[in-house]
Write a structure and sequence with these properties.
- The complex is a heterodimer.
- Chain A is mostly helical.
- Chain A has a domain of 216 residues.
- Chain A contains 15 helices and two strands.
- Chain A has a two-stranded antiparallel sheet with strand order 1-2.
- In chain A, helix 4 packs antiparallel against helix 9 and helix 6 packs antiparallel against helix 9.
- Chain B is mainly α.
- Chain B has a domain of 200 residues.
- Chain B contains twelve helices and two strands.
- Chain B has a two-stranded antiparallel sheet.
- In chain B, a hairpin with a 2-residue loop joins strand 1 and strand 2.
- Chain B is globular, with a radius of gyration of 19 Å.
- Chain B starts with a helix and ends in a 14-residue tail after the last helix.
- Classes of the chains: A mainly alpha, B mainly alpha.
- At the A-B interface, helix 5, helix 8, helix 11, helix 13 and helix 15 of A face helix 4, helix 8, helix 10 and helix 12 of B.
Chain lengths: 344, 291
């Protein structure tokens, strides 16, 4: 199987090289702008998945970290009158702020069972949005506007692109490391059966909370970057419930709990969403289209592209092997919990 | 003091309507482990239906309930049949959130397409008229809403505890597999429950539309309130939803006297405080296993 051991690094290397060369090949700012938004969502989806995908606790409140990162960057930039690219140095702080907010948020929200957790993340999200509407420092309904930047017009998008790429690649790398680690195994044990994991000595609360905090950091960072790039944050765009759901959809489409799934999902959904929005359907029709696509994905591909494809390829290899020799058939692993759920 | 009593009265009368809408949500969760996030926009859809009936067909919204309640019931059954029934497996609740969100987005898009974003409202004559009693000022519409909610809640209660169908609903709530084993048609129970849970939005939407102006966007505010109410009351508990709705709407009305901008925050603050003390909500049952 040396061929397949080589395939993966080569594919990843090619993808990275393509990503690095992308703005040099496609110099059209309209294209790179969409690429930047896409990378922002790649980072967000990968970060979200490293908590929600691995632990099974679905969060619909990560926009809290996104909006907080955006508002923090905006307030700091405006207050300290930071010029041009200096603003980028704020991004680690924006990520840190996301992590700091995630601590009390997580302690509060992770006390409850999974179903309630989802709803509590939504409630916390609305608290933050309401606060952004009502505080003076966030500029109320009108939001906060970024100062104009004196980057050269031709390469204006490039710094944003490479920073977004850096955050996205870093997030995916961390997500991969988490999945391979003991910590990732504990998370997945919690997902499969929290009581049993606890019985086996997993400190469930600590593990869940750490994963939640880790997942908040990149989201805060891309929130800050997003504000500086899009130049305006207001309560409805910074704290946008549609983003939370879009990220969940990306992960579900690609494959919840896999490393590459959310990346693939983001690479499919965000560009097509932007394309539809800009080229095909103006107005509210896009919403209906988006909703319908969403339903289709969840109902047709409930396990996501990556697991489904992997299974297909596995079956195909199996069949090929069986044709050569009498193959040992792996029994399919079905847990009792799965069977109960299937019955229910 | 008069202001305070007025706020409490408004809170109790208004809270009953929220209790009804939340009861639908919590009933659906109790039976199917499904969180119907579309409940908010369904209320708005029902409000638009009442609006069309009264503004274009000149049918009184109250009389129009004879049309809107069955319409919403059928829509609920259709949503359950087309989407919710197909959700299986471990991530069912989370998937149901995403699916119902998608349904909400589609309905919201359709409403925008049909009515635009300009807020509308309708004012049946009993929405403006009011009467004074002991120095209070009570609009008839609040009383009608309260009466409707009380009747509907009583009907749901009787249905659950006094009929054979109600017994199979409660059995399904307790244990789906066991319910199926003793011969209950769980799919039928689920469809009818979803239908009933959505049908209550017709009454809720009628009152909401008569007391507020609304546009397709109004569903978000509603759903965040309704979710807070069902969580505070304990997911799956109808009595909890009733208590939580009365408490929260009253608290909001009281805070509204001094602090109109932050009144909505009372909801969430109450939620945070209660959940810190009781993670299962006011009347929620403790789950057997942590998942």
């Amino acid at each position: 199987m040396s061929a397949s051991r080589l395939t993966r690094p080569v594919a990843i290397g090619a993808l990275l090289a393509f990503a690095v060369a992308f703005p040099l090949v496609f110099t059209n700012p309209a294209v790179t702008t969409n690429a930047i938004y896409t990378l922002i969502f790649v980072a967000w989806a990968a970060a979200w998945n490293s908590f929600s995908g691995y632990s099974g606790y679905i969060s619909l409140g990560h926009a809290v970290f996104f909006g907080s990162g955006a508002y923090f960057t905006a307030i700091a930039t405006i207050d300290w009158r930071l010029p041009g690219s200096d603003v980028f140095w704020l991004l680690p702080l924006a990520g840190l702020l996301g992590g700091v907010i995630a601590v009390p948020f997580g302690i509060f929200a992770l006390r409850v069972r999974r179903h309630t957790f989802v709803v509590i993340t939504i409630a916390v999200f609305f608290i933050f949005q309401l606060t952004a509407y009502n505080l003076a420092v966030t500029g109320g309904t009108s939001g906060l506007l970024a100062p104009t930047i004196n980057f050269a017009a031709a390469t204006y998008n490039n710094p944003f692109y490479y920073i977004a790429l850096g955050i996205a690649v870093g997030t995916v790398l961390i997500s991969w490391l988490i999945r391979r680690s003991r910590f990732g195994l504990q998370l997945r044990a919690i997902r499969d059966d929290e009581d049993r994991a606890r019985g086996l000595g997993v400190r469930a609360m600590r593990v869940k909370l750490s994963a939640f905090v880790f997942s908040a950091v990149p989201v805060g960072m891309v929130g800050g970057l997003w504000w500086y790039f899009t130049t305006l944050v207001d309560p409805s765009s910074g704290f946008d419930p549609l983003n939370d759901v879009a990220v969940a959809l990306m992960a579900f489409l690609g494959g919840l709990g896999t490393v590459s799934g959310p990346v693939l999902g983001a690479l499919i959904i965000e560009p097509s969403y932007l394309y539809f929005q800009q080229q095909v359907a103006a107005g509210y029709f896009i919403w209906m289209l988006y909703g319908a696509l969403f339903l289709l994905v969840i109902l047709v591909l409930p396990r996501g592209i990556i697991p489904t494809t992997a299974e297909r390829i596995g079956n195909w290899l199996d069949r090929k092997r069986r044709n050569g020799a009498v193959a040992r058939r792996e029994p399919q692993v079905v847990t009792a919990a799965d069977r109960d759920k299937e019955l229910a | 003091m008069a202001k305070f009593l007025q706020a409490v009265t408004d809170g109790i009368l208004g809270g009953a309507v929220y209790a009804l809408m939340a009861a639908g949500l919590t009933l659906i969760f109790g039976v199917m482990d499904i969180i119907n996030i579309a409940q908010g926009v369904l209320v708005i859809l029902a409000a638009y239906l009442s609006y069309v009936l009264s503004a274009h067909l000149h049918i009184d919204p109250l009389l129009g309930l004879l049309i809107t309640v069955p319409a919403m019931f059928v829509l609920g059954i259709a949503i359950e049949w087309a989407f919710m029934r197909r959700l299986r497996g471990r991530e069912r609740t989370a998937m149901s959130l995403l699916v119902s969100y998608a349904v909400a987005v589609i309905i919201e898009g359709a409403l925008y397409q049909a009515f635009g974003s300009t807020p509308v409202g309708y004012l049946p004559r009993y929405a403006i008229a009011s009467f004074h009693i002991l120095g209070f000022y009570l609009p008839y519409i609040y009383l009608i809403g309260f009466g409707l909610a009380a009747v509907a809640m009583a009907a749901i209660y009787l249905m659950l505890y006094r009929t054979k169908f109600g017994r199979s609903v409660r059995a399904t709530m307790q244990d789906k597999v066991a319910a199926r084993l003793i011969g209950i048609n769980v799919d039928r129970v689920a469809a009818l429950t979803f239908g009933i849970g959505v049908a209550v939005t017709a009454a809720g939407g009628m009152v909401f539309g008569a007391t507020n102006t609304f546009n397709p966007d109004s569903g978000y505010d509603l759903i965040s309130r309704l979710l807070s109410i069902v969580i505070l009351g304990g997911l799956g508990s109808i009595a909890g939803a009733l208590v939580a709705a009365l408490f929260m709407v009253t608290a909001e009305e009281i805070v509204n006297i001094w602090q109109p901008t932050w009144a909505t925050a009372v909801y969430y603050a109450a939620l945070v405080i209660v959940l810190l003390v009781r993670p299962t909500g006011l009347l929620g049952k403790r789950e057997a296993r942590a998942q």
